[in-house]
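Structure in, sequence out. Go:
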């Protein structure tokens, strides 16, 4: 998190440090002013207007317009569009043979290719950026930026020695100079050393970052204190770590209370308290982290709903504007035709041929109006379909938020019982697994589909926790055919299988005496992925006699069926759920 944050700061403030206003035009000054204020939408409009007004030949003004347009598009989460304009800016700078602007564009291309997950292209631009900056030799900052970018590449491909060299070489070139890229280098080097277990030196580097940060930059100070506390924790300097976490929490509260940072601080403080033997305090911090995660999840859902409502409202406004424009044009056209007919009647006796031409023209205009109205009706039909699609998406998101909370309540009770019995190791293991499962639920719940490997990992983590709650244990297997494992692009609906697994555990296996077995397997049948959930439980005939664990009515399978139908409708496919009784005990559930 620290490394990504500083990379973004460096890009915004340093990437185009050498780009100067060559011709002094007011639009360029406006673009730079909007960039400093973060007015991305206005900056995009001004840049597009400037590009339309400028000649197509390479110039400093055209470069600045393309560069700022790329930045504005990128800040609106459109890396592909940003890459297109950054590429144009780079070509202009190359035609102008302006090394400083070429360096700025190369850094921009690296950033947007990373955001678009085009890592091979990003690595190619990184190497070109470093070679040009090193050969140019007159811009130390660009040289250091290139080294920091190369360090990020080596981190991704797991070459820690090369990564460390890049960061240390960048710091050596900077020397005693004060520049924001120094903060990024120090933070990235600290992360590299922490990954290698050198936590004390990493803590010293984080302290240097704190010294470099502006005293008013409370948000970044809070993140830096979080990273400092993490290094102190792993260096077993627990008291200092707690102090860093407390200070970071205070600064975060003063700077807007970022929920992701608050969650990290609570989880780290829980880990530190557990290491110090304060199980009660650790449990309280885990509960706080869970509450913050719930708040973050609710806020994320509200933001998504607000975004959909905003888009829907904007669409309705655009439709209303289009309708009013069409009516105005139609009124103007009727007035013009009426005038033409009036003047034509005055000369009808003299210009019979003119009258015939006028009639022909009127017929042509009527055909044109008919075609226009037909096109408008077609567009309205398409817009209606789009609105219905948005409504289906909203229904789908609402269904995904209706997760039965009894598993969470039971897990907390299990942790409480273990702590009360004095089984600290078991409680800690259960707590870690529970926190990991909640994080998976949080990450997956905001996505419509996830890779099959992620879904399998989630099911295994869930069954691992359920197995810990059975005194006699639970034998389980979650796997997929090799062909599905090899398909990295395969996506499955998020959290769709878990209700069936939970149903098998608590209605089939929980009341069973003796060995309990559960198998979940994904297979490809034709063009469809089939998931089979099989158990050796008491069977469906015996299962209804047992009440739900929390006394509530089970809606999980009903909601999952509705969600599966919505997904199938959206994707234009078919999906179904099939229950099959085994020969003896147990039940098999098959989802198509």
């Amino acid at each position: 998190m620290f490394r990504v944050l500083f990379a973004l700061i460096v890009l915004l403030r340093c990437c185009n440090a050498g780009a100067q206003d060559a011709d002094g035009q007011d639009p360029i000054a406006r673009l730079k002013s909007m960039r400093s204020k973060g007015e991305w939408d206005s900056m995009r409009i001004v840049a597009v207007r400037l590009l339309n007004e400028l000649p197509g030949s390479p110039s400093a003004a055209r470069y600045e317009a393309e560069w700022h347009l790329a930045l504005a598009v990128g800040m609106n989460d459109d890396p592909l569009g940003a890459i297109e304009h950054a590429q144009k800016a780079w070509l202009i700078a190359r035609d102008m043979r302006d090394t400083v602007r070429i360096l700025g564009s190369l850094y921009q291309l690296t950033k947007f290719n990373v955001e678009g997950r085009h890592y091979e292209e990003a690595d190619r631009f990184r190497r070109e950026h470093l070679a040009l900056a090193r050969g140019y030799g007159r811009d130390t900052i660009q040289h250091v930026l290139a080294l920091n970018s190369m360090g990020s590449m080596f981190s991704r491909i797991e070459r820690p020695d090369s990564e460390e060299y890049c960061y240390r070489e960048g710091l050596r070139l900077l020397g005693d100079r004060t520049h924001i890229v120094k903060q990024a280098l120090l933070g990235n080097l600290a992360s590299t050393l922490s990954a290698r277990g050198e936590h004390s030196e990493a803590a010293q580097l984080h302290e240097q970052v704190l010294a470099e940060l502006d005293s008013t930059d409370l948000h970044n100070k809070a993140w830096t204190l979080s990273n400092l506390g993490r290094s102190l924790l792993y260096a077993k300097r627990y008291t200092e770590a707690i102090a860093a976490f407390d200070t970071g929490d205070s600064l975060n509260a003063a700077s807007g209370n970022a929920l992701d940072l608050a969650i990290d601080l609570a989880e780290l403080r829980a880990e530190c308290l557990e290491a110090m033997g304060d199980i009660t305090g650790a449990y309280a911090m885990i509960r706080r982290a869970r509450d913050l995660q719930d708040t973050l999840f609710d806020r994320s859902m509200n933001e998504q709903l607000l975004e959909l409502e905003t888009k829907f409202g904007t669409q309705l406004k655009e439709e209303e504007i289009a309708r009013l424009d069409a009516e105005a044009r139609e009124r103007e056209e009727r007035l013009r035709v009426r005038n033409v007919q009036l003047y034509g009647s005055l000369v009808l006796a003299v210009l019979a041929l003119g009258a015939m031409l006028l009639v022909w023209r009127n017929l042509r205009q009527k055909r044109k109006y008919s075609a226009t109205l037909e096109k408008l009706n077609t567009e309205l039909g398409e817009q209606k379909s789009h609105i219905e699609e948005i409504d289906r998406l909203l229904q789908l998101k609402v269904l995904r938020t209706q997760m039965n909370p009894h598993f969470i309540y039971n897990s907390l009770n299990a942790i409480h019982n273990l702590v009360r019995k004095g089984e600290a190791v078991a409680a800690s293991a259960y707590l870690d697994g529970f926190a990991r499962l909640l994080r998976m639920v949080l990450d997956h719940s905001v996505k419509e589909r996830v890779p099959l490997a992620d879904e399998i990992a989630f099911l295994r983590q869930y069954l691992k926790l359920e197995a810990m709650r059975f005194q006699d244990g639970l034998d389980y297997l979650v796997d997929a055919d090799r062909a599905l494992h090899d398909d990295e692009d395969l996506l499955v609906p998020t959290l769709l299988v878990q209700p069936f697994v939970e149903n098998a555990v608590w209605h089939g296996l929980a009341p069973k005496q003796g060995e309990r077995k559960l198998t979940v397997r994904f297979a490809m049948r034709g063009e469809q992925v089939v998931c089979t959930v099989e158990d050796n439980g008491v069977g469906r005939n015996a299962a209804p006699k047992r009440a739900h664990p929390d006394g509530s009515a089970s809606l999980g399978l009903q909601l999952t069926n509705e969600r599966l139908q919505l997904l199938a409708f959206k994707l234009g496919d078919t999906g179904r759920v099939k229950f099959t009784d085994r020969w003896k005990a147990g039940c098999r559930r098959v989802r198509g």
